[in-house]
């Protein structure tokens, strides 16, 4: 099946080459359940940064299923200066070439005069994945907790949440997210790259699922 996809990608893609992504991917995250470092499972991150300009990745980034939503990533963070700076740096990294992911950063992208909670709920629904920048300030921010609950309500077991922690003891990690693997930005220098790769993997899986569904529908019609 994988070989068939490779042939399909090569036969369909005719896009200009992009610059190759220069970042190493660390193959470990910190599971909230065991609170210890553990290698990712084979279903977690299948794309590496070396595939930044591959035809397969370009096909995924230009797939119709990706563009069904307005944003690739919704970023939730607190109002403190340090958290705003961290979130802005993360978004700048994700939006840079070659992937140019589409991010929602509420301070930048929320409409002036709009109701904050309504705007946030709509952005959560319009995003493929949700990144939570969890810090001590995040835990004390009612707005952040509201956004986290909205993200959980949209898909608590859908692999669409990416928790990031910084300057946070594992005992402070929210119980609502105990089933999620998190990335510790304080200890992992490649944390941004891991987020980028996780988003690409999700979009790749989503695209393949849509292709398989489309092939099944075509087969049923022929029969």
TrEMBL record:
This is Toll/interleukin-1 receptor domain-containing adapter protein. PANTHER family: TIRAP, TOLL_INTERLEUKIN-1 RECEPTOR DOMAIN-CONTAINING ADAPTER PROTEIN. One of its GO terms (cellular component) is plasma membrane. GO terms for molecular function: Toll-like receptor 2 binding; Toll-like receptor 4 binding. GO terms for biological process: positive regulation of canonical NF-kappaB signal transduction; positive regulation of chemokine (C-X-C motif) ligand 2 production; positive regulation of tumor necrosis factor production; toll-like receptor 4 signaling pathway. The lineage of its organism: Eukaryota, Metazoa, Chordata, Craniata, Vertebrata. Residues 69-206 form the TIR domain. Keywords: Receptor. The keyword Flavoprotein does not apply. It holds the Pfam family TIR_2. Residues 29-54 have a biased composition (Low complexity). Residues 24-57 are annotated as: Disordered. InterPro entries: TIR_dom (IPR000157), Tol-interleuk_rcpt_adapt_Tirap (IPR017279), Toll_tir_struct_dom_sf (IPR035897). Gene3D superfamilies: Toll/interleukin-1 receptor homology (TIR) domain (3.40.50.10140). The keyword DNA-binding does not apply. It comes from Parambassis ranga.
């Amino acid at each position: 099946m994988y070989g068939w996809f490779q042939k399909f990608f090569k036969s369909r893609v005719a896009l200009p080459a992009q610059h190759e992504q220069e970042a190493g991917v660390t193959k470990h995250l910190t599971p909230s359940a065991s609170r210890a470092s553990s290698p990712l499972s084979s279903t977690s991150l299948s794309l590496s940064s070396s595939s930044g300009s591959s035809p397969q990745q370009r096909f995924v980034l230009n797939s119709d299923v990706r563009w069904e939503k307005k944003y690739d990533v919704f970023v939730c963070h607190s109002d403190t200066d340090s958290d705003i700076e961290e979130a802005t740096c993360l978004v700048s990294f994700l939006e840079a070439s070659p992937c140019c992911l589409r991010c929602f950063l509420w301070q930048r992208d929320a409409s002036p005069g709009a109701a904050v909670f309504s705007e946030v709920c709509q952005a959560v629904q319009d995003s493929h994945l949700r990144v939570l920048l969890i810090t001590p300030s995040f835990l004390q921010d009612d707005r952040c907790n509201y956004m986290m609950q909205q993200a959980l309500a949209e898909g608590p077991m859908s692999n669409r949440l990416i928790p990031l922690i910084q300057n946070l003891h594992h005992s402070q990690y929210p119980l609502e997210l105990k089933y999620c693997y998190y990335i510790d930005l304080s200890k992992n220098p490649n944390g941004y790259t891991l987020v980028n790769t996780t988003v690409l993997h999700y979009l790749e899986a989503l695209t393949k699922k849509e292709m398989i569904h489309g092939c099944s529908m075509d087969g049923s019609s022929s029969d």
